[in-house]
Write a structure and sequence with these properties.
By secondary structure, the chain is α/β, with parallel strands linked by helices. The chain contains 11 helices and 8 strands. A 4-stranded parallel beta sheet has the order 2-1-3-4, sandwiched between helices. Strands 6-5-7-8 form a 4-stranded parallel beta sheet. Helix 2 links the parallel strand 1 and strand 2. Helix 6 crosses helix 7.
Length: 300
């Protein structure tokens, strides 16, 4: 059958219409279709350069993997100083930004980030700002959520107090004092430390909270210790790990350590070198915060 020239002219518009309909769908098949949902968890700690602190991180890692079986878990340290120290020792730990970049490149679409900090201070705020920047980035992640640090709500405070009291050495007598060393910060979130003192006092009048770099100070603690009439003092970190501050500033042999200063004032000091992350009841609080963050990821 012969096809006349006129028939060809009539056929061309129909062909163009088919092409116009097909080309966008072909393009979408290659580029525009939604990526399959891939969920992951990023744990963000301040970090520590002390090998002994690894026990705390291992405890958290095990608890998270038990609670979220099959979900990939990545780690990061927010402290650049600690990452640099570890790098010189040949151990590379990612910053939160680098860990998120790697997760993005690996195709994760939904990431729950859990802050392993004690208070919502500078470190927590920095992580929040950094990781949320990956949400909605071109070829980035669909959803990023961030779990609250250890101390955030009234319930967190109550649970943390109970957890720490439950982990005070059993040989401590009622007349003995317990001094908790927190980090302290110029950030407004430092208020959580004097608040902690208030919460602990209601449970045990001989537990005192001080900080290395904030308020209350060791001098504030000394005033309360004197009033307590205690002769023996248990020194414990109010930090996730028993790292440099705990081993040197709190329990070190230098003249300006808390142990040395209190010993000079006549107290018998008993350092307890365990970070709060080594207490299962404390880890449970972080995991509960991560459960909330993970739930809020959704599936879209």
């Amino acid at each position: 059958m012969q096809c006349r020239f006129g028939d060809k002219i009539k056929f061309i518009p129909a062909l163009l219409l088919v092409c116009c309909l097909l080309i966008p769908s072909l393009a979408m098949a290659g580029h525009g279709e939604a990526k399959p949902v891939k969920k992951g968890i990023l744990l963000a700690a301040f970090g520590s350069s002390m090998p002994q602190a690894q026990a705390s991180f291992d405890a958290i890692d095990a608890a998270v993997k038990k609670t979220f079986p099959g979900v990939p878990v990545y780690w990061s340290f927010s402290s650049a100083i600690i990452r640099d120290v570890l790098a010189k020792e040949g151990r590379i730990v990612d910053s939160p930004a680098m860990a998120m970049t790697k997760m993005m490149d690996a195709g994760f679409t939904h990431v729950a980030v859990q802050s392993l900090h004690t208070i919502p201070g500078e470190e927590y705020s920095g992580i929040l700002e950094t990781v949320k920047a990956f949400e909605g980035m071109p070829k980035g992640m669909s959803k990023v959520t961030v779990g609250k640090p250890l101390l955030y709500t009234n319930d967190d405070m109550l649970r943390t107090v109970d957890a720490i009291v439950a982990n005070i050495p059993k040989d401590r007598k009622a007349k003995d004092a317990v001094v908790l060393m927190g980090h302290g910060t110029p950030h407004a979130a430092n208020i959580y430390y004097p608040a902690s003192q208030n919460y602990f006092s209601k449970v045990d009048p001989k537990i005192f909270v001080g900080t290395v770099e904030g308020s209350p100070s060791l001098d504030d603690v000394k005033v309360l210790l004197k009033k307590s009439k205690s002769k023996k003092v248990y020194l414990m970190p109010y930090m996730s790990v028993a790292g440099d501050h705990a081993r040197n500033d709190m329990a070190g042999d230098e003249d300006d350590s808390w142990k040395s200063e209190l010993t000079k004032e006549g107290y018998k000091c008993v350092p307890v070198l365990k970070g709060t992350a080594e207490f299962p009841q404390v880890v449970e609080i972080w995991v509960d915060h991560l459960k909330v963050a993970f739930k809020h990821l959704g599936d879209h």
